[in-house]
From TrEMBL:
The name this protein goes by in its record: Flagellin N-methylase
InterPro entries tied to this protein: Puta_zinc/iron-chelating_dom
One Pfam family from the record: CxxCxxCC
Domain of life: Bacteria
Annotated spans, Disordered: 129-148
Source organism (scientific name): Gimesia alba
Length: 148
């Protein structure tokens, strides 16, 4: 559910949408990550999320790591304190399709390591049980070569 007080369609001529926003786009970054395919991949993702201040989401089959954190140039009134020297990615971003009024829902969304692990258990084949060390050692011991 959107929590905005002013709808895009209510903007008057000359008004800027960002004036009504708490700078949602300046408070995180998200990077695409490889699609997890096995237990090790999910274990890595589990480790990311253990650090807090981040989550994993999937949008149109692409997996992303989202890291929460306000840009150091974000001013208390939600304006950019580095406007003239802001990075290219900020310059090219527009309000046309920004997250101002999106509801923050994704195809999949993981906030805790437990959620990731539960999902891994649902989609992966069961983990192979580790053999006890002594058994493993015995199994890898080579047979003696018999010379005839
Ligand atoms: S571009 Fe969109 S999300 Fe970013 S500050 Fe403006 S209205 Fe908010
Ligand atoms: S440099 Fe400015 S526009 Fe870019 S993320 Fe930081 S506060 Fe936002």
């Amino acid at each position: 559910m959107s929590t905005v007080t002013v709808k895009r369609s209510d903007l008057k001529a000359g008004e800027v949408l960002c004036s009504y926003c708490t700078a949602r786009c300046c408070r995180y970054f998200a990077l695409p990550i490889e699609t997890p395919e096995n237990w090790e991949d999910f274990d890595h993702m589990r480790w990311y999320v253990m650090h807090g201040h981040c989550s994993i989401f999937v949008d149109e089959d692409t997996w992303f790591l989202m890291v929460y954190g306000d840009c150091k140039y974000l001013l208390p009134d939600y304006r950019c304190g580095n406007y003239e020297d802001r990075p290219k990615i900020c310059r090219s971003y527009t309000t046309d399709d920004c997250e101002y009024d999106n509801d923050g829902t994704y195809d999949r969304f993981f906030e805790t390591p437990e959620q990731i692990w539960e999902y891994a258990h649902a989609v992966l084949p069961p983990k192979k049980k580790k053999r006890k060390k002594s058994q493993a050692a015995t199994a890898t011991q080579k047979l003696p070569v018999v010379h005839i």
